[in-house]
Amino acid sequence: MVIGTGGTIASSGAGAVDLHNYSVTSTVQEILAAVPEVAELAELTSDQPVSVDSFKIDNPILLAIARSVLAAVANPRIDAVVVTHGTDTLEETAYFLHLAVRTVKPIVVVGAMRPANALSADGPLNLYNAVLIATSHASSGKGVLIVANNHVFGARDLAKRDTSAIGAIEGMKYGILAEISGDRVDFTHFPAKPHTVHSEFDLAQVEALPDVDIMFDHQGAGDHLYRASLEAGATAIVVAGMGNGSLSVGARQGALLAHQIGIPFIRASRTGQGIVAPLKSDVALGIIAGNSLTPQKARILAMLAIAHRKSGADLQAIFDRY
């Protein structure tokens, strides 16, 4: 099943060289019709739970996408799922599915950096490769995979690292899982952290996702944004700290405010990669070290964990494990 959600892969601009001002114009059925070669790889069905730019995805939309994927993998006639998605927040949706969909069936998320009518549009080949990966037995049990530029990435460890370059999707320091050469798929690595069938998260128990905010720390930061977040009802705060998740005076005051009312405070790093190690100074304020997750993925994990009533030491254990 190919599940369409919108994004650049389903968009068109005013002309072939308009690579920035475009809008979602195509359904998933129209995307598939534009790449007839995919029908030679598999028997295809489709679903369109939403059709939006991925920067417009909120918690209810994220749940709607996940429930569409869950319904697909529960169908015994469906062997694999491909999700077409905008690249702006692809990494967040992919990681959410990686944690929340319990299946060994391949799930592949794919997007594009250029709209469908652009010169050298990357969407058609990315879509073909996504279906190719989804039909590969080697993809089973490896969690949610992402295809871009003939490379296959794991959902936990990829990020969009450029605003508009064709190679914006990267595996960061943990690299790629597989490479596509023609119709050959060659896996060389696999995800080591728990996912899918080994995940403890179950969306059947989740009616709505809690609100978790992300703060970007910097020199001279105040505590006013933390106060506003807590007053607005945030159930946790993730901070994109400096270096090893180091906190400014204002951010540490924010951590104190969160601790006083029992709201989890999670240190990640604005550097974008590397492990945020626990510090002795975390103990007094119950601060949680975010491991090697980027701030945006730390938010995804925190939402799921809090939705499953995890807090304190149990929440730290979740971040250590996933």
- Structural class label: alpha/beta
Order of strands, main sheet, comes to 4-1-5-6-7-8-11-12
Q: Return residue spans where pLDDT drops below 50 for at least 5 consecutive residues.
A: none
Question: Total number of helical segments?
Answer: 8
Q: Kindly provide the radius of gyration, computed on alpha-carbon positions and rounded to a whole number of angstroms.
A: 20 Å
Q: What's the count of strands?
A: 16
Label the overall shape: globular
Determine the mean pLDDT. 97
- Beta-strand proportion: 15-25%
Q: Characterize the main sheet.
A: 8 strands, mixed
> Termini distance?
28 Å
Helix content class: 25-40%
- Helix and strand string, N-terminal first? EEEHEHEHEHEEEEEEEHEHEEHH
Q: Oligomeric state of the chains? A: single chain
Structure characterization notes:
With 322 residues, the protein is an alpha/beta fold. 28% of the residues lie in helices and 18% in strands. It contains 8 helices and 16 strands. The strands form 4 sheets. Strands 4-1-5-6-7-8-11-12 form an 8-stranded mixed beta sheet. The protein has a 4-stranded parallel beta sheet with strand order 13-14-15-16, with helices on both faces. It has a two-stranded antiparallel sheet with strand order 2-3. Strand 9 (159-160) and strand 10 form a beta hairpin. Helix 5 runs parallel beside helix 6 (249-260). The two termini are 28 Å apart.
